Amino acid sequence: QVFLAESGGGFVQAGASLRLSCAASGRPVHYHTGWVRQAPGKVRELVAAIAWNGATTYYTDSVKGRFTISSDNAKSTVYLDMNSLLVDDTAVYYCVAADMWPIEPDATFGSRFWGQGTQVTVSS
Fold it and tell me: Per-residue pLDDT tens for 10-31?
């Protein structure tokens, strides 16, 4: 059984930084990991992803240069460092582990596991 636990969300002011963590247990070694956010009234969005071996990363355009995804395989943990946060970054952030690259959160094929989510709120 795969279990993903997110942590690190919070309430911050615009311009601040946060680090999200996704600790995995039972995740197959070759699964890739991503961060997906869901804001009220907005489409769910893949924000960043990292391949299982760390060799490839993905960022959506709106976070390039501000967010960094990294992994510590020894700890089975993936991090999302978020800098220069904007009000538009406010959302629930979910960790997802997937067997296919690129990660397609809404795909009907392949296998994905989800965490419970962590709230990030950025105030102006």
Answer: 999 999 999 999 999 988 889 9
Tokens of 90: 């406010």
Q: Model confidence over 22-79: pLDDT tens digits?
A: 999 988 889 999 999 999 999 999 999 999 999 999 999 999 999 999 999 899 999 9
Cα–Cα distance for residue pair 103/44, rounded to 1 Å: 13
Q: How many C-beta neighbours within 10 Å does residue 34 have?
A: 27
The CA R_g of the chain, rounded to the nearest whole Å, is 13
- Residues sharing a CB contact under 8 Å with residue 107, sequence separation 6 or more, in sequence order: 100
Rounded Cα distance, 6 and 77, in Å: 10
Nearest alpha-carbon partner for 46 in 2, 13, 91: 91
